[in-house]
Write a structure and sequence with these properties.
Chain lengths: ~110, ~110
């Protein structure tokens, strides 16, 4: 069966510090991978998605970046965090481009920027 | 741009009562609609996925309907239990895309 991992589970960082969140998927090959951010009381906002190694698409302008160094590994990074980067970050995967497929979500990372 | 709205934002019911959660979307050109459950501080769990050609999907006590032309979906949870307490989110996948547009969710509390 497929599983998705995210770490760390929680993170408190000062403004201006770097960030690295990691997501890995097990039990499947060549998944589509997604990074979402969820702010309190709001829906999920898609930040990045990837259809293959080294292929990253950004949905919104921001000071975050994403990388996919391996087929089942997706990393969210920042060189300098802003207060507005605080939120709940969720990684998700789906099997392929088929429009009828569902997305499967990881447990999330709670990021607080002080 | 697809806008997804969920009403009400919060709902509190006594145990045993049926739950009705509403989701509306502005663009009817969708491939599917999904309902997710999110427990506090946790990730999302997929509950039901309705294809654009379908009218409803059922899983146990859950039933979701879809009226694509009017841009509406309803999630019914029969005989609610305290364990059903969570936030329920709906998401639509637009035609020609695989990105999901999410609503803000309905937070449900089932009182024992």
């Amino acid at each position: 069966s497929q599983t998705i991992h995210q770490w760390p589970a929680t993170l408190v960082q000062p403004v201006g510090s770097p960030l690295s969140l990691e997501c890995t998927v097990e039990g499947t090959s060549n998944p589509n991978l997604y990074w979402y951010r969820q702010a309190a009381g709001r829906g999920l906002q898609l930040l990045f998605y990837s259809v293959g190694i080294g292929q990253i698409s950004s949905e919104v302008p921001q000071n975050l970046s994403a990388s996919r160094p391996q087929d089942r590994q997706f990393i969210l990074s920042s060189k300098k965090l802003l207060l507005s980067d605080s939120g709940f970050y969720l990684c998700a995967w789906s099997l392929d481009h088929r429009y009828t497929d569902t997305q499967y979500f990881g447990p999330g990372t709670r990021l607080t920027v002080l | 741009k697809q806008e997804v709205t969920q009403i009400p934002a919060a709902l509190s019911v006594p145990e045993g009562e049926n739950l009705v959660l509403n989701c509306s979307f502005t663009d009817s050109a969708i491939y599917n609609l999904q309902w997710f459950r999110q427990d506090p501080g946790k990730g999302l769990t997929s509950l039901l996925l309705i294809q654009s050609s379908q009218r409803e999907q059922t899983s146990g006590r859950l039933n979701a309907s879809l009226d694509k032309s009017s841009g509406r979906s309803t999630l019914y949870i029969a005989a609610s239990q305290p364990g059903d307490s969570a936030t329920y989110l709906c998401a639509v996948r637009p035609t020609g895309d695989y990105k999901l547009s999410f609503g803000a969710g309905t937070t449900v509390t089932v009182r024992a």
